[in-house]
Design goal:
11 strands; elongated; 3-stranded antiparallel sheet; alpha/beta; 375 residues
Amino acid sequence: MAVTGNGPLAGVRVVELAGIGPGPFAAMLLADLGADVVRVDRPGGGGLAVDPAYDITNRNKRSVLLDLKSADGPARVLDLVERADVLIEGFRPGVAERLGVGPAECHARNPRLVYGRMTGWGQEGPLAHSAGHDIAYIAVTGALGMIGAPDGPPAVPANLVGDYAGGSLYLVIGVLAALQHARTTGTGQVVDAAIVDGTAHLTSMIHGMMAAGGWQDRRGANLLDGGCPFYGTYETADGGYMAVGALEQQFYDTFTDLLGIKDQAPARKDLARWGELREAVAARFRTRTRQEWTEVFEGTDACVAPVLSLREAPAHPHLAARGTFTDVGGIVQPAPAPRFSATPAAVRGGPALPGAHTASVARDWDVPALYPLED
């Protein structure tokens, strides 16, 4: 098969109604994979005060400026919708309908449209119309309560678990599934991607383990939540940290051998002595620096890695060799993922500045009514 270089979603047209957080990130994923994503920005901007030139979640997109509250704003959006495959919006339930660009209006113009809705609480339920952020969504699903030390408060995992894992990724999965259905049947549909639903879904394995008696419903007491002494993080002599994930016996044997505690380490399956084992591991890690321990474990099957900062990560030898990060316009950023053998994705352009592509979108999408909005 010939390599096109345009990504597997080349030819798919997406309209993104500007928002913040998981909606823009989901649209970026589609854009990274080759979709022609047109972001409808509002005059004067909105949301978080991030300089548009540095908003990586708007890379690979194009932007037009439309005021959805103006007399002709909704009509221009519907003109784009008529020519699109997908629409993504992240308003509170009912807002898109009040603006005149809800599912009914959009499907009247384009029955094949996949209408993707990104919210925290979902389209219905007692909290559907309430404000919220990632931390509240992951709190009520039980995910936040699992993270952190047993003798302290839950640890906040930035906004990765809710907004992006439970939100953006599930919206993209839903959109792609609905797009396949639309191409097969000719019928579009609404995708209701709620962060609470996606985050709860992420805990499926844990719920199974809990039902089987293999997971305690409390922090820091289990195999994968820091309760296990050979699955966690340890401070080094220079204040750095090493991450240990030596779960399987053969990896644990390699780990204790290279760490130098093989002869004095208590039996790994003796839960009563896990505290003793943790202290032995911690004491040993404190004898060398993070770099020294990295050199000991690098390339082995001990399942140990240095805990790097965001600025350090791009220089890690493995990530550098794979090109996991890239520099575009002086901004170091993650490269598109995953990878495709026949239709590789790429960063084709930097963040789309609001309204910068009005003329090209009007031409390419055959929406001449957009021209008057051109600066």
